[in-house]
Amino acid sequence: MSILDQFRLDGRTAIVTGGNRGIGRAIADGLADVGANVVIANRDAAAGDRAAEEIADEFGVQTLAVPTDVTEESDVQAMVDRTVDEFGGVDILINNAGIVQHNAVEEKSVAEFQHTLDVNLTGAYRTAKYVGEVMREGGGGVLINVSSMSAFVANYPKHQVDYQASKGGLEALKNQLASEWAEDDIRVNNVNPGFVDTGLDAEADEQLETWRSEMLVDEFAEPEAIAPLVVYLASDASSYVTGESVVIDGGYTVR
Ligand code: NDP
């Protein structure tokens, strides 16, 4: 098989949580571009349907949107069942759904802290748990968590301790799942983006300038910059890569 052919995902089934917009949508587009059928799993049903339709039209693959709140175990179970009914199995799971709440510890209630962990970390566990069963029965698969550089560094001057904790947790989750599931031929890896332009317009210009000056690449990433790395990790081109985290941050954490 040629090197380029190793990156193809023709006929494989990929679930992308939060695949309707932002980084998740770019990942869903990227997977579809190399032939994967894509399931969009997010809460807003209309947005999910729209994304699924657009991806099918643009890339000629099969798509499905299943309204899913990753904090609801029954939603996750139903979404995985529906995917199996429609496509016969699951080859790739992208745990991308995530939230961030910007407020300092003094204002952040324990309930808020727990909610962020419930979406970003326990949400990833819920989908992994049910998709993992299907992958085991199907002879293997690939799981990729969209973590963050925030798993490894503090973000100054942001106030997002719950977010950092959730992404740090995804690192340990990934290590252990990769270990426990190796015998089932399930590879587990994380991608760890830096600043991606999905909501940066809310930041002050001065702050953006400071962060930009701390990067080695002079621009913030577009969501599309993350997708090729995910395609690589989802494909046979990365068959020897598991239990790994790949930071993709324009060199921000190097400085
Ligand atoms: P967006 O806010 O643009 O998108 C978040 C996505 O998650 C939406 O599709 C949303 O859909 C979905 N989502 C949120 N809550 C839930 C839930 N409970 N159940 C199911 N889906 C949910 O975020 P980004 O694209 O910026 O971020 C995507 C991922 O990338 C996150 O995990 C984030 O932490 C990570 N990341 C982002 C960076 C950045 O700079 N933007 C940097 C590093 C990592 P809906 O509302 O319809 O449910």
Main features:
about 260 residues, alpha/beta, Rossmann fold, seven-stranded parallel beta sheet, 8 helices, binds NADPH dihydro-nicotinamide-adenine-dinucleotide phosphate
Write the layout of secondary structure elements.
Layout: H1 3-6, E1 13-17, H2 22-33, E2 37-41, H3 45-59, E3 63-65, H4 73-87, E4 92-95, H5 110-138, E5 141-146, H6 161-181, E6 186-193, H7 205-213, H8 227-234, E7 245-248
Parallel strand pairs: 1-2, 1-4, 2-3, 4-5, 5-6, 6-7
The structure holds NADPH dihydro-nicotinamide-adenine-dinucleotide phosphate.
NADPH dihydro-nicotinamide-adenine-dinucleotide phosphate is lined by residues 17-18, 20-24, 42-44, 47, 68-71, 96-99, 119, 146, 148, 193, 195-196, 198.
Structural account:
It is a single chain. The protein is of the alpha/beta class and 255 residues long. It has a single domain, classed as 3-Layer(aba) Sandwich (Rossmann fold). Helix content is 44%, strand content 14%. It is built from 8 helices and 7 strands, in the order H-E-H-E-H-E-H-E-H-E-H-E-H-H-E. The protein has a 7-stranded parallel sheet, sandwiched between helices. The chain is globular. The model has no long low-confidence stretch (mean pLDDT 97). The structure holds NADPH dihydro-nicotinamide-adenine-dinucleotide phosphate (NDP). NADPH dihydro-nicotinamide-adenine-dinucleotide phosphate (NDP) binds next to helix 2.
